[in-house]
């Protein structure tokens, strides 16, 4: 998957949605100033940044070397490691909260990843995760345009957790208790079509890889269809994510 990219590029692609999502997600997860949080799949640090503003302690992990380096530079006092959710090199019961923002759908084995998150969370602690909803998430306007031209294209609606109830199924299978699932929505203003479109050409994630797979003519055609649907000027994307939390 295309995530070995400069953090600045990822920020322009997904950070514009991940930053506001982090605020509502940490509230949903019940993170307070006394929390000791593991940020699983931290990316360039959107969730870590917000947790720190709450006064909580944060440890972070991500498989992408550029992202790990970026978080270390941005937050030199945070313990940041390279690794995956499925192989968390932390002690059992080390954290009060283990959080995964926009990560479960990219885990090779989501149940194992969530099981590992539960293992490193102390009894009574919270494991929480959120994933964009397929039809109404941050990337839905892009895939809607793709499907006008390519109805059979596989979008991110098929990824783990991307529809109501799937995160709950994964949490229960991973052994978590008292699982609650809710939808979270953030509104992101795009000042122009170009500001919205250009990051899709960076090759990030399934959407970026799809654009990269197109020849120049097909890419222009997709851009034209998306522009007709969204317009040239200011518009708002209301992005919905599914969020689940459970108790260890």
Automatic annotation (TrEMBL):
<keyword id="KW-0808">Transferase</keyword>
<protein>
    <submittedName>
        <fullName>SAM-dependent methlyltransferase</fullName>
    </submittedName>
</protein>
<dbReference type="InterPro" id="IPR013216">
    <property type="entry name" value="Methyltransf_11"/>
</dbReference>
<dbReference type="Pfam" id="PF08241">
    <property type="entry name" value="Methyltransf_11"/>
</dbReference>
<feature type="domain" description="Methyltransferase type 11">
    <location>
        <begin position="38"/>
        <end position="128"/>
    </location>
</feature>
<dbReference type="GO" id="GO:0008757">
    <property type="term" value="F:S-adenosylmethionine-dependent methyltransferase activity"/>
</dbReference>
<dbReference type="InterPro" id="IPR029063">
    <property type="entry name" value="SAM-dependent_MTases_sf"/>
</dbReference>
């Amino acid at each position: 998957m295309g995530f070995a990219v400069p953090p600045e590029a990822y920020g322009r692609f997904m950070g514009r949605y991940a930053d506001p999502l982090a605020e509502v997600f940490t509230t949903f997860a019940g993170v307070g100033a006394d929390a000791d949080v593991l940020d699983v799949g931290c990316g360039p640090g959107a969730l870590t940044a917000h947790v720190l503003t709450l006064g909580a302690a944060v440890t972070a992990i991500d498989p992408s070397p550029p992202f790990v380096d970026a978080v270390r530079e941005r937050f030199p006092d945070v313990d940041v490691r390279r690794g995956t959710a499925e192989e968390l090199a932390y002690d059992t019961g080390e954290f009060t909260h283990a959080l995964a923002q926009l990560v479960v759908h990219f885990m090779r084995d989501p149940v194992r990843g969530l099981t590992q998150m539960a293992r490193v969370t102390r009894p009574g602690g919270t494991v929480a995760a959120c994933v964009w909803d397929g039809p109404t998430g941050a990337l839905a306007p892009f895939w809607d345009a793709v499907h006008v031209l390519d109805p059979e294209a596989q979008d991110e609606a098929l990824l783990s957790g991307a529809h109501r109830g799937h995160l709950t199924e994964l949490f229960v299978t991973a052994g978590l208790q008292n699982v609650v699932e809710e939808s979270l929505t953030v509104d992101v203003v795009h000042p122009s079509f170009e500001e919205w479109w250009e990051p899709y050409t960076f090759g990030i994630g399934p959407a970026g890889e799809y654009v990269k797979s197109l020849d120049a003519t097909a890419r222009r055609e997709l851009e034209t269809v998306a522009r007709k649907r969204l317009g040239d000027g200011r518009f708002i994307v209301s992005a919905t994510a599914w969020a689940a939390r459970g108790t260890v």
